[in-house]
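Q: Sequence in, structure out?
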Amino acid sequence: MAYTDNPRAPRVRRDAAAFAKKHGVRTAARRFGVSPGTITKRMRKAMRIGEHPIPTKSSKPRHHPKQISNELVWQIFSTRLRVKRSAEVVHQILKEQGVLVSLTTVKRTLDRTGLLKKRSPWKRFHPHVERPLAERPGSLVQLDTIHTMLDLKKRMYTFTLIDVYSRWAYAKTYPHMNAAITLRFLAEAQAQAPFHFEMLQTDHGPEFGKWFVERAQKKHRHSRIGKPNDNAHIERFNRTLQEECLDKVERTPEAFNKALGAYIPWYNSERHHFGLALSTPLKYLKCFQAID
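A: Exactly. Output:
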């Protein structure tokens, strides 16, 4: 059963085994133009798999003269499970233990054992932008979207925004979600804010894609993948918004926006924040303007 790419070969092997069972091995060998030993192997294979086409064996070698030992594979595997860190960390730990193995081998072994987390081929690349310090209002403004399920297929979307320095926030609900709606929401938030937005920070959602970034005409950075603390302020605001406002009203865009129309002004003017030394966002902004 040498390697071949003929799609009919598996069925020919099955037929040869069946013919040999009826008429004998040598007769089948002459009929199909192979050696008697080949027919015998096909018959043994047919006994194991039944009356099914006998598949072609892979041309891939079973062993390689430079392959690592099973003991080393187990060391890499067990170290990865124990520390739960990247291939580079696993390689460094093994190096400190006196195990001579390359980083490429570590990555290949983790890949074969299903322990290597690969980058999604559908994830778009975004260049790294340094995160600025929130030293004044608007220096870092975070945006996000809350998805609310209406039924198994229908959703509505609450866009949220918060200034990291002052905790000033804004939110509005829309029945649909796309980059154009995000741009409209940003314009409405900027019109309401008592300061100018300098840099925006979002996750990698489709509503914050290239089209939005080009038309927002502001500095922009995407949160780092695998760094949940990048968006900690907006995520905490989303939770507060849901617990104190959205979860208490009917699930319709009209009801959400009516509730937000009362909640957001109260949040900015009366709700005290531990992060602001128990001040409110608007009072904190007034203190900054007085100092500035």
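The CA atoms of residues 100 and 232 lie 41 Å apart.
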